[in-house]
Write a structure and sequence with these properties.
Helices cover about 50% and strands about 15% of the residues. Strand 1, helix 2 and strand 2 form a beta-alpha-beta unit. By secondary structure, the protein is of the alpha/beta class.
Length: about 140
């Protein structure tokens, strides 16, 4: 019985959607992590831009929550180059003004922009909608 439950738990965990949080503020990262973990998602995080290009979770995440203002990323063009052709949905959550945020979102083809402070239930609802509506491109190919 215990083995069966362990297999069910392992199977359930392997099917959990994965969210990558790129956020340098430790308190904000903690709040986002708790929000998504309590909603049943697997959560990984990055705190600065040093390892952004090589971080494996960027390629495997089902959705990315991105703060534009992170250490070791000196201008938005670096982020634009990293994310403009990305397969996973991206939600930008940042303290920059809305006009600049929306411009950046358009450049990286992000699906949403939330200005800090934000309504956590609205953010969670947006994540759920995006994950239901748009699987990653490679998942679509694998289903064919």
């Amino acid at each position: 019985m215990l083995l069966r439950n362990r297999k069910q738990l392992t199977l359930k965990l392997s099917h959990m959607k994965e969210i990558l949080i790129i956020e340098d503020d430790i308190v904000m990262q903690f709040l986002l992590r708790n929000l998504f973990t309590e909603a049943g998602y697997k959560v990984n995080s990055i705190m600065d831009g040093k390892d952004l290009e090589d971080h494996k979770d960027i390629k495997t995440a089902d959705i990315i929550i991105l703060d534009m203002m992170i250490p070791h990323v000196y201008d938005s063009s670096h982020l634009i180059d990293l994310y403009k052709d990305h397969e996973s949905p991206i939600i930008v959550v940042s303290s920059i003004d809305k006009e600049d945020g929306l411009y950046f979102c358009k450049k990286i083809d992000a699906q949403a922009f939330f200005s800090k402070p934000f309504n956590s239930s609205e953010l969670l609802k947006k994540v759920e909608l995006l994950l239901e509506a748009s699987p990653k491109k490679n998942e679509i190919i694998n289903r064919l």
